[in-house]
From TrEMBL:
Designated name of the protein: Fur family ferric uptake transcriptional regulator
Keywords assigned: Cytoplasm, DNA-binding, Iron, Metal-binding, Repressor, Transcription, Transcription regulation, Zinc
Pfam families, per the entry: FUR
Molecular functions (GO terms): DNA-binding transcription factor activity; transcription cis-regulatory region binding; zinc ion binding
Organism this protein belongs to: Flavimobilis soli
Record's keyword annotation contains RNA-binding: no
Coiled-coil stretches noted in the UniProt entry, renumbered to this chain: none
Cofactor: Zn(2+)
KW Repressor (keyword) present: yes
UniProt binding sites for Zn(2+): C98, C101, C138, C141
Domain of life: Bacteria
Chief location bin: cytoplasm
Length: 149
């Protein structure tokens, strides 16, 4: 399992192990995602700028892309919401998304027999991951009476 269990001080080692140069923007983005799971790019940009000062939007997107390509970060794309990024990778976990506010949470993969995770046809594909997104209303929105149309 390749979940994020690294201490903040070994971010550089994690980047090197993935074949990436260690740069201040890469360190800042990775540490932001460790502190703020399921952050969208705008949130990452804001937090990285708070830490580093001036950094371009393109630089943050480039870093997110590089981290995703190297398997350090996972990108999720709930329908109707901006892409989100997280450092929990490699364990085939799933997500729950609030229809009202867009809050995202992790859901561990079901164990035992889970027929919805076994496709009725693979169409010749070799299946290695099942992506499941549960939709609903988070406790805060439910308590506030917030609903979607």
């Amino acid at each position: 399992m390749s979940t994020s269990t690294h201490a903040p001080d070994d971010v550089a080692a994690q980047l090197r192990a993935a074949g990436l140069r260690v740069t201040a923007p890469r360190i800042a983005v990775l540490e932001c995602l460790r502190a703020c799971p399921h952050a969208d790019a705008d949130t990452v940009l804001t937090r990285v700028r708070e830490r580093l000062g001036s950094v371009s939007v393109q630089a943050v997107y480039d870093v997110l892309h590089a981290l995703t390509e190297r398997g350090i970060v996972q990108r999720i794309e709930p329908a109707g919401h901006p892409a989100r990024y997280e450092v929990r990778v490699g364990d085939n976990h799933h997500h729950v998304v609030c229809r009202s506010c867009g809050a995202v949470g992790d859901v561990d993969c079901a164990t035992g027999h889970a027929p919805c995770l076994i496709p009725s046809s693979t169409h010749g594909f070799t299946i290695d991951t099942a992506e499941v997104i549960y939709w609903g209303t988070c406790p805060a929105c439910r308590d506030a009476g917030t609903t979607t149309a």
